[in-house]
Amino acid sequence: MDPLAAMKAHYLTPLFQPKSVVVIGASETINSCGRQVFSNLLNSPYTGILYGVNLRHDTVFDVAVYKQLADIPEDSIDLAIITTPARTVAHLMRECAECGVKTALLLSRDFVAVDKKSRSLLDEVIAVTHKHGIRVLGPNLLGLFRPSSGLAAANYEGTVKPGPLALVSQSSSVASAMLDWAEAHQVGFSAVVSLGAAADVNFGEVLDYLSQDPETHAILIYLEDVGEARRFMSAVRVAGRTKPITVMKVGRYQEDGERLLARTHSERLIGRDDAFDAALRRAGVLRVETTIQMTIAARMLAADFRATGRRLAIISNGYSAGQMAVDRAHDVGVQLPKLDPATVAHLKTFLPPIGNHDNPIDIRGDAPPERFIAATEACLADPHTDGVLVILTPQVGTDHYATAESMIALRNTSKKMLLLAWMGDKKIAASRKRFDEARMAYFFTPEHAVEAFANLASYGYIQQISLQTPGPLASHIEPDLQRAREVIHLALKAGRSVLNMLETLAVLEAFRIPVAPTLTAATAEEAVAAAGRIGLPVALKINADNLLHKTEVGGVQLNLHTLGDVFETATRMLESAHPHLPAATMHGLIVQKMHGKPHGRELMAGIRRDEVFGPLVAFGAGGLTVEVFDDLAVSLPPLNDMLAGGLIKRTRIDKALGPFRNLPAVDMAAVRQILLSVSEMACELPELLELELNPIVADEDGVVAVDATVIIGKLPKGFTRYGHMAIYPYPSHLASAAQFRDGKPCTIRPIRPEDANELQRFVKEDLSDESRFHRFLNALKELPPVLLARFTQLDYARDMALVITHEEDGVEHIAGVARYTLNPDSTSCEFALAIADHRQGQGLGRKLMEALFKAARDAGLDSIEGEVLGTNTNMLELIKRLNFEVRIHPEDSQLKWVVRSLAEVKK
User: Fold this and answer.
1) What's the whole-model pTM score?
2) Are 78 and 176 in a shared domain?
3) pLDDT tens across 242-292, in order?
């Protein structure tokens, strides 16, 4: 038995794999939704039971239908497809509840209006479905396809083939266009889901189902808006770790006016689309920007193509066509390696003496199929290549179709990527059709082929990024969290949203960010005294509450080399600033030591709070011209050393941080440490809305933050730890020391991705057949890769797994695992527990479960529940000691349903 098939079915299974379907509004009326949907299902190979409901007719398309749902002779129906007007839906949903309908597909189109009446109708429908536990997809959508089972529950006319690619689209029109394109190019789908308004079942839930679906090998997504960021990130991160995902999102640009009121440089420079890009990067997802790229992605994903590296060999029967590919390769970072000398020598034996015999290879315009084949075979065999691009232009002497057939035959002779660009149109149309039939990676232009190879080659790297699960405090320098939080609390209590300079410095110092020596001065005389203590040269800055841009009131003067200069400048600055600033907010001057870094490069780092994705960490070139050069990269926190390094490399200023001319390289470890500290501030200070460190001056001896701005705000009611973040950090606060009964030390901590091999060993070696069956309700011997990834690569916001570990000969071993998974109601969770056979009876199960209770309570959950085999007496005894209520399982007499409230668990 397939281990995945034996696992508990996903709660959306009745929607995607219904055993019974009813079409409410089945009709023969021309151009009606009810006609199209019922016709689709009648003419498809759907093997489940199909019913129709029509208030006025006894038959539709010569098939008997019912007047109302209650007349159907079945106690439970998996899926109801509603095609009637919006005004009828609430009543129909109540009938669905009475008839045991589990899920509904709401194809009614007149919910699309945004007026109060339409909104009220939809709210009433959703209230009914929530009350009775019916899950609804829609409204205002194309529908749902599950081609392998013949489910064609959609208002669409056309054929949808089975295949390994899932398409999820927020737009019915885009989904319809993609299906028409796919039919022409023989691309098949495992599922097609049009989300529509997503009033109930949302994007995250659909993606969660597809991530567990064995028929789906890859996912293509069209997005217009993300919705709730935490659920979005959770879904794409879980799915993207086991299956390649490509996303196209529109709305990349915002109105010009939206940035004009920004308070900091970071806010002006970072747009909504930057946040979305950062989110996809952390989730291990590729993004495309055009419909052509989307169709290319669909073809590549459906054919299950993979690239193992970035080295590409180019073969063409025309110099110019080859150069098009070369130019694009340089643009997108694809490597064009020199071929092995043996390969070049072999090519010379059959290629014409003129033309290029090394990469890129010009095999001349009159190349017959044999010359294409020989050159391609040689490049596929070359040790310096990861893929080969073959470009054909239809010239006299070429046989495009015979060459195409040869390329199809070559595809399975090598594991390397073989891409084909047949240029032209009319003359090579037959070849393209043949490529479609053979599911080959073919393109209309060399540039698109190179872009596709670059994207595939990037997949391995972004997967590595997606596996990074830093803790909130990723650096080795422990911050003074209490001090920073107290400063912010007092400022908020005073009704201020901007920290003054001394408060800002206190927060930076709490997070171990180097700052220049600083003193305050109320008068010009005090400024002279402060400069004398710090040492010349100094900078003077106005010290005032809620002053975001000091330069706008002449509030910054640099490089003052004499005490006389300090006195004169301080006098002038104070006189100039007073008319512009309320007296109650004016505190005098800040006197700061100049950084004294002749080799320094000016950088900027900061935080900006995105409305959807929460805090973003930004890095780039700094100084007064920051907005002119617009050199900024962003990432979602939390960061670790690898992610901080990647953030730096995505900027242009990165090239200036190494040695050049007479300047030594800057201390890159110190630059990365600044970013780690900023990331920690984003994680641990949820009141922090914006931070800008500009400039940060970096040289060979380290870094120093010269100026900073901090903007804060109050937390919303009901805020939970890390609730402001799209990516939940590794919950290191849940780790604790413990002991085995024999007194030997052990540790209870959240599981990490790098625990995968040890978890596999634990399941194979430390659990008996009986224990594995009790845990998984299946006789599996080991965890398949999909389950292993799901069990170790967690989104800690919705799933938690705690392991109890101990060391033997310097190697960490797992002795037990307890986990919970969030239920769809987001207020309860389902648990599972496994203890190594040789460790049972030592109280480990109780220790792990009590730690799991606390983690669930900290996450704001109300109850924890689970299934236990009636024969698992040891677990049932533990359950009773832990104050679970044991109930009869509603669906399986061999199981017990156990539930425990978390209200009494201490936070």
Assistant:
1) 0.84
2) yes
3) 788 999 988 766 554 444 444 554 454 455 678 888 888 888 888 888 888
pLDDT of residue 267: 52
Quick one: pLDDT at residue 119? Answer: 66
Residues 629 and 758 both lie in one domain: no
Contacts 24+ apart (CB under 8 A), 426-429: 427/394, 427/400, 428/392, 428/394, 428/400
Spacing of C-alpha 545 from chain mean position: 39
User: What are the pLDDT digits (tens) for 92-135?
Assistant: 999 999 999 999 999 987 775 555 555 688 889 999 999 999 99
Range 726-751 burial, b when 16+ CB lie within 10 A, else e: bbbbbbeebeeebebeeeeebebbbb
* Mean pLDDT, rounded, for 541-560: 81
- What's the mean per-residue pLDDT of the chain? 89
Q: What is the domain-level CATH number for residue 528?
A: 3.30.1490.20
**Degrees, nearest 5: CA angle 45-47-50:** 100
Domain CATH for 31: 3.40.50.720
Domain ends where: 543, 563, 594? Answer: 594
* Helix, strand, or coil (residue 721): coil
175 & 72 share domain: yes
Within 13 Å, how many C-alpha atoms sit on residue 416's CB side? 22
Which has the minimum average pLDDT: 55-69, 431-445, 469-483, 859-873?
A: 469-483
Domain termination site, one of 594, 609, 636: 594
Q: What is the CATH number of the domain that holds 707?
A: 3.30.470.20
Q: What is the pLDDT of residue 77?
A: 95
Domain assignment of residue 230, yes or no: no
Host domain of residue 830: 732-901
Cα–Cα distance for residue pair 710/492, rounded to 1 Å: 12
**Number of domains the chain contains:** 5
CATH number at residue 819: 3.40.630.30
Strands 151-154 and 143-146: antiparallel
Residue among 152, 163, 155, 301 at smallest CA distance from 221: 301
Classified as helix, coil or strand, 564 is helix
pLDDT at position 698 is: 96
From residue 36, alpha-carbon distances to 42, 83, 157 in Å are 10, 10, 7
Rounded Cα distance between 704 and 726, Å, is 30
Whether residue 266 is contained in a domain is answered as: no
- Same domain, yes or no: 767 and 891: yes
Q: Is the bond leading into 695 cis (omega within 30 degrees of zero)?
A: yes
Question: Could you tell me whether strands 811-822 and 828-835 are parallel, antiparallel, or unpaired per DSSP bridges?
Answer: antiparallel
Mean pLDDT throughout 729-750? 92
Q: Are 802 and 818 in contact (CB under 8 A)?
A: yes
Q: Measured between alpha carbons, how far is 314 from 322 in angstroms, rounded to an integer? A: 7
474 domain residue, yes or no: no
pLDDT in tens, 414-458: 989 999 999 999 999 999 999 999 989 899 999 999 999 998 888
Question: Which tens digits make up the pLDDT trace of 796-806?
Answer: 888 999 999 99
Kindly state whether residues 657 and 700 are assigned to the same domain: yes
688 and 830 share one domain? no
Distance from the first to the final alpha carbon of the chain? 42
